[in-house]
Every structure is written in C-alpha cells, then in structure tokens.
Amino acid sequence: MPLKISELAKVTGVPQSTIRYYVKEGLLPKPAKVNKSMSYYDESCIDRINFVKELQDKKYYPLSVIRNIIKQIEEGTDLQEVLSLEDAIFRPKNDGTRDLFTRKEFLQASGLTEKLLREAESLNIVIPYNRDAEKPYNHEDLQFARNILLGCRDLGIAIKDMTFYVDLGEKIVLEEIRLRKKIVVGKTKDDNLKITALLSERADELRGYIIRRLFQSKVREMREKQ
User: Fold this and answer.
1) How many domains does the chain divide into?
2) Which positions ≥6 away from 78 have C-beta within 8 Å?
C-alpha cells in the first residue's frame, strides 16, 4: 500500500527530512508524484529504511557505503558476501567505543582548536570516517587527534611537516589497488569479493609491520654509525 511521507516517517521512526535525504542520496527510490504537493512511497521503503538504520546502528557504515551495499544486492550479490567485504574495508577498529561525533563534540572531546582541525583536514592528515555526515568522526579519528596531532604539536612538529605520510600513503594504496586488479583477473564476482576482503585485512597488517621494521632497521644503522 502506498504511503505518504508522514505515514512512512511514523512507521519507521525516521524524520521526514531524513527520508528526503535518503531519496536524494539514492538510498530510497523516488516517490510517485501525484501532484506538486503530494507524493507516495512504496511500502517496500519501510524495509529499506529499517535496513539502512540497522547498518548505521550496528555497523556504523557511512551512507556512501550503505548505498553501495544496496546497489550490490540489487544486482544479485549475496548480502553476506557484500557485508564481509565492507567489514574488511570500512569497519572501524574497535577499542570498545562505538560513538560517533559531531564537529562540535569532536573538538570538545579531542581538545583540538577549530583552526588546527581545519588545517589537518585541508592537508588530509585528518580524514573523517563519515565525511559530510551529521556525525562525521568516530573513535579512531578521536584517538588520532589526541595521540598524534596534539602529541606532535607538543613536540613542535607542524602539521604540514607530516604530509609526506599522505603523499606516500596514496602511492601505497594505489599499488594495493593495482595488485588487487592483477590477482582478480578471470575470477568470478564472488571470488573477487572474497579476495578483495582478504587483501584488505592483510594489507592493513602488512603496512604497519613493514614500516615498523624499516624504522627499526634504520635506527639500528644510525646507531652503528655513531
């Protein structure tokens, strides 16, 4: 049975403004317009909204990720396969905290100034987990701001002096994407998803291990030369 937006909002518990935003972002199909002031939503939108809410509440996925999940499902991909891939790539590292923060809340919790945060974001040193959302920052962003940004500031390190991490990091990521494309050639779509998910998990560990060992090796070399 077709529903007015007010009825859909009442059934799902989602504000009308959010429903309109979901339509704008491609998470819901456009309603059927009766006239300029009246539109009706298909009843299936109830399940779709509940699905979006579940992914937000339990997985903390950005809406862009949820949109891709919906697209993959509509194309016939198994839900669990899609979720395993998105988990591997977008699931926040859990330290027991699952909160998301508005910009104001993030500034208060982190101790950063607006000026410092703007500079860090403009240089891609801080990359919000859920960019453009009402609550774009998660606990990883908060931990980074507290431990790294403020720590480096206390050491007298300017944010602009850390941009080499971004430059070199982009090169590493592009090489990882190139590697993924190479190893999935000729594979089925399901195998492609599995390989991509596994590669994402392994690459996260690989980056930390190699850089840490390279750093240790260079420190040893420097000590031996002293």
Assistant:
1) 3
2) 190
Structural domain range at position 119:
92-157
Per-residue pLDDT of the chain (226 residues; tens, 9 = 90+): 789 999 999 999 999 999 999 999 899 999 998 887 789 999 999 999 999 999 888 787 888 889 989 998 888 888 888 888 888 787 766 655 667 899 999 999 999 999 999 999 999 999 998 877 788 898 999 999 998 888 888 888 999 999 999 999 999 999 999 998 999 899 888 888 888 888 888 898 999 999 999 999 999 999 988 7
Are residues 106 and 69 located together in one domain of the fold?
no
In this structure, the answer to whether residues 130 and 182 fall within a common structural domain is: no
How many whole angstroms from its chain centre is CA 214? 29
Q: Which of 139, 157, 175 is the last residue in one of the domains?
A: 157
Instruction: Give the SS3 label for residue 7.
Output: helix
- C-beta atoms surrounding 63 within 10 Å: 18
CATH code of the domain covering residue 97 = 1.10.1660
